[in-house]
């Protein structure tokens, strides 16, 4: 993680490799405000990071072909200080052994709310694919897999999160629709399954309470079986989550969304490691930190005010469960008249030079040992954000019906996108030649498209088997469509790796 205050840099990162966090002062060019995501390899070496405006590589240089990977009005208006939305970017690996990574991102456009003031509204979610082997091992965005729309719709501002599929390899990416810009509400959740072979299994699930805002947080429990949604008005709702099918169930309203002001300004939430407690921070004056006992027969009645703060103003930021099983809380400093971002050169104090820590988050009440402004940032300063990292180490639900990978040797031919009834597409991933068998007899045409829908290759065949030369294609993900004389026969996705 890291922050920047112009003109002096406020850069640091946390190193948990020894079990406890070590704050390392570290200079880099990229400034951060609220949006930041990063990813390391399986041994903890930094690979890529982003502030929502561009991506940097392990050498702190701009990642090859990453410029304009997340276009939008607010990407430009915040430049160069970093995008100002929580959880607006996310890195996901294809698998633990792959050199390919997804970066999921969101910007926003400006609109006039209630004919009175400007506000931000995301209208699409996009992804790009990074190949870590490009640029002599520093990585780069694949030319044919950059800024590809996942969905076009009105979405909540940032708050993109993910949870491992029950097979321990694939990912569920989950986010929410927002009708705030049109003065309405919804209870729609969007879920996508992210695999090494593409983005699939899109679903819209309408469940739980209506959300009237364009800002809220989705947070997962450590096992991925519980989800909480909170919003700025004050809605707090608990769900079960099925890692096999990506569906929510059993909504429990902990705090209903108020129908009249004032709003409660719930900013962030985090489960304790054993998922018995839920913590919620607010971004209001006074600022509050609440604890809820999720084992209580009346969760709402178990609400306990762990901490409150009247000054500085609107101080509460992100909560994050860290690898040491402690929960960290970011804070910024706002005195009511000096703009909080960027900080002025003289604004150094206990509030913006420390994080707050819940040392025993599984414990009830004061036994959770909340210590405000207790984690020193090495002379650097913080704002409201913390890195958006899902639990990369969450394993498979071993023995479950959807654990299709544990104990099975990985094979590119296991790709479910490679098969159809009576036929097969192989090898997948391909290097130079792609074969298809089991096609209908007679004339057919193999057509290869990039993810933008541009036709790249085509090949005529006169039998139930076909072959097409893909050696001219760059590494990346492609669609293939095979058409016979009567129309389309099937459409599948394949990967080129050289």
Structural topology:
Blueprint: E1 3-4, E2 9-10, E3 12-15, E4 22-25, E5 37-40, E6 46-50, E7 55-57, H1 73-77, E8 89-93, E9 100-105, E10 109-113, E11 117-121, E12 124-131, H2 134-137, E13 140-141, E14 148-152, E15 161-164, E16 171-176, E17 186-195, E18 198-211, E19 216-220, E20 226-231, E21 236-241, E22 248-255, E23 266-271, E24 277-282, E25 287-293, E26 304-309, E27 316-321, E28 327-331, E29 354-358, E30 370-376, E31 419-420, E32 423-426, E33 433-437, E34 444-449, E35 455-461, E36 466-469, E37 476-484, E38 487-496
Antiparallel strand pairs: 1-2, 3-4, 5-6, 6-7, 8-9, 9-12, 10-11, 12-13, 12-14, 15-16, 16-17, 17-18, 19-20, 20-21, 21-22, 23-24, 24-25, 25-26, 27-28, 28-29, 29-30, 31-32, 32-33, 33-36, 34-35, 34-37, 37-38
